């Protein structure tokens, strides 16, 4: 099955670039886009399913996960990010 990126029909809970965590393993990943699959009518969106990417050592990995398997991760800001605002 082939998956492609489609940014036109993103579900409300995640958007490309969002940092998420896989609930069962705490693996942190970025949302790349919504998952689609080919059909005789063109690409069909796989409802509530996202393509995610992460780095495992030095190799980029990609997987497809249902929204219920993912949890949003709040961005981490250290003092360096705020140095110009003091």
In brief, what are we looking at here?
Helix content is 0%, strand content 49%. The protein has 86 residues and is mainly β.
Describe what you observe in this structure.
With 86 residues, the chain is mostly beta strands. The protein is 0% helix and 49% strand. The protein has a five-stranded antiparallel β-sheet with strand order 4-3-2-1-5, with no helix packed on it. Strand 3 and strand 4 form a beta hairpin. It starts with 18 loop residues before the first strand and ends in a 14-residue tail after the last strand.
What's the SSE blueprint?
Elements: E1 19-22, E2 28-39, E3 42-56, E4 59-66, E5 70-72
Antiparallel strand pairs: 1-2, 1-5, 2-3, 3-4
Radius of gyration: 15 Å
Biggest sheet, spatial arrangement of strands: 4-3-2-1-5
Shape: globular
- The SSE string, one letter per element, is EEEEE
> How many individual β-strands?
5
Number of domains: 1
Describe the largest sheet: 5 strands, antiparallel
Q: Which structural category do the helix and sheet elements fall into? A: mainly beta
Average pLDDT level: 80
Multimerization state: single chain
């Amino acid at each position: 099955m082939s998956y492609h990126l489609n940014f036109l029909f993103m579900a409300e809970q995640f958007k490309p670039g969002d940092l998420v965590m896989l609930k069962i393993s705490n693996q942190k990943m970025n949302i790349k886009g919504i998952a689609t699959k080919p059909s005789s009518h063109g690409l069909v969106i796989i409802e509530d399913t996202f393509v995610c990417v992460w780095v495992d050592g030095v190799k980029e990995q990609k997987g497809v996960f249902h929204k219920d398997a993912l949890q949003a991760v709040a961005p981490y800001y250290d003092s360096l990010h705020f140095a110009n605002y003091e």
